[in-house]
Amino acid sequence: MTICVRLTDRALVEVSGEDRLAFLQGLLSQSVEDLTPGEARYGALLTPQGRLLFDLFIIGRPDAVWLDVAADRRDELVTRLKIYKLRSRVDIRPLDAGVWTCWPDAPGPGWVADPRREGLAWRAWGPESPPAETAGPVDWRRRRLEFGVGDAEDFDFDRDYPVELNFDRVGGIDFAKGCFVGQETTSRMKRRGQVKTRLVPIRFAGPPPARGSEVLNGALRAGEVRSGVEGLALALLRLDRIDGALTVDWRAVSAGAPLPG
Hints:
This protein is an alpha+beta fold.
């Protein structure tokens, strides 16, 4: 059975104009200069210091690029992009269209595989024939947590580094492209092996701990919980402390492996 959810926590920004690809190419962590209509990629806009500002799905359209961003951050994204606009011939505006995800199969033509992990889900933006919504946000959260994939609710914007959030392992960073905002720090962390913490799935008995709950390895702080569902969550953990007797809220925790590189 195909399960479908409308993602009301996501919204769209449209970037149009003849300079749209060159404009975004110089900003985003993902290469877009060869983006084709109907294609979707995953990426980010970072601070100059390399911290995450916005996680983005980048969707090619015939005469535009759509950016799928956390709904409560859409206005901030529009403002930020306009700051960078300068003399670029682009138009940037919010777009009123729904964002949908379905799994394990696409409900029809026009759906694009979620680029973050093979088999995770399918995604569509403003589909002409929206499917019936057969599940809710908690079902989608469980689905992506089972794949070890983070989303906006797992990120501390303007604080976290994208490689700590596994952007390098879900296709969110193109290390071969030219310059982008925050590239120097991002590339250095990856090249020098300076990634000391990562989002890691954890399992436990009972309801999910509150966001920010401390994960302990004995008496040592190992990290903190981000999003979760019954029995499963993602936590930002120190890689040197994921082995051993982990607990959260006095409950035993078992940590899974970080996403493969």
